[in-house]
């Protein structure tokens, strides 16, 4: 996960650069895809999530000369450059500057996203399972449904939802960080 806060007025240049770096990443071994969360009208923060087959593949990309040179091209137009290397779903809740929220908050947020999807997605997929009989077989339909829900959660909902709830999610982490940086 890479977070860049882009300076005001520099979004067109950043967008062009973003396409260039994503094309370059696509050529690296293990690259499996990407998802970019673009900023709102008031916020200049881009979040790019690149998927690689293994953490080692991702590390090779992050530490590559290609990536270093490309980031150097836009250094003057970004205010922050945070890169986080995580496997699995850990990246949903780990922000470089803010640590991790309490486990109960992670559980509550994840449940609040997945529970409605378990009610909405199966009926929406029912016509597919009826039309393509092998996909409707017991077990297969469950795997397809789970894969669709996880994809929606990972690439659509959680990046935005965690950003929306950021103040509440990380309140304790910020207080703990402030306490540790201000010894008595």
How would you describe this protein?
The chain has 184 residues and is an alpha+beta fold. Helices cover 56% and strands 14% of the residues. The chain has helices spanning 11-26, 55-62, 65-74, 103-131, 140-164, 166-169, 171-181; strands spanning 2-6, 31-37, 45-52, 78-83. It has a four-stranded antiparallel sheet with strand order 2-3-1-4, with helices on both faces. Helix 1 (11-26) packs antiparallel against helix 3 and helix 4 (103-131) packs across helix 5. The longest helix has 29 residues, at 103-131. The chain starts with a strand and ends with a helix.
What's the gist of this structure?
The chain has helices at 11-26, 55-62, 65-74, 103-131, 140-164, 166-169, 171-181, and strands spanning 2-6, 31-37, 45-52, 78-83. It is α+β, with helices and mostly antiparallel strands and 184 residues long.
Which key features would you list for this structure?
184 residues, alpha+beta, 7 helices, 56% helix, 14% strand, globular
Number of helices: 7
Gyration radius, rounded: 19 Å
Strand content: 5-15%
Q: What is the share of helical residues?
A: 55-70%
Oligomeric form? single chain
What number is the mean pLDDT?
Answer: 83
Give, in order, the helices and strands.
Answer: EHEEHHEHHHH
Question: Which of globular, elongated, flat, extended, rod-shaped describes the shape?
Answer: globular
Read across the widest sheet, the strand sequence of neighbours is 2-3-1-4
Structural class: alpha+beta
| Tally of DSSP β-strands | 4
Give the CA-CA distance, first to last residue.
Answer: 35 Å
């Amino acid at each position: 996960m890479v977070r860049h806060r882009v300076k005001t007025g520099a979004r067109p240049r950043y967008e062009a650069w973003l396409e260039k770096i994503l094309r370059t990443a696509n050529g690296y071994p293990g690259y499996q895809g990407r998802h970019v969360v673009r900023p709102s009208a008031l916020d200049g923060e881009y979040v790019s999530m690149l998927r690689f087959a293994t953490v080692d593949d991702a590390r090779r990309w992050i530490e590559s000369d290609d990536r270093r040179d490309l980031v150097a091209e836009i250094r003057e137009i970004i205010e922050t450059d945070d890169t986080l290397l995580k496997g699995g779903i850990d990246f949903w809740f780990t922000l470089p500057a803010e640590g991790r929220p309490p486990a109960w908050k992670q559980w509550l947020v994840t449940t609040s996203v997945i529970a409605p999807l378990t009610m909405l997605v199966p009926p929406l997929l029912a016509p597919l399972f009826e039309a393509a009989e092998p996909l409707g077989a017991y077990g297969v339909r469950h795997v397809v449904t789970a894969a669709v829900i996880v994809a929606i959660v990972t690439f659509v909902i959680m990046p935005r939802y965690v950003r929306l709830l950021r103040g509440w999610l990380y309140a304790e982490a910020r207080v703990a960080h402030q306490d540790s940086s201000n010894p008595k």
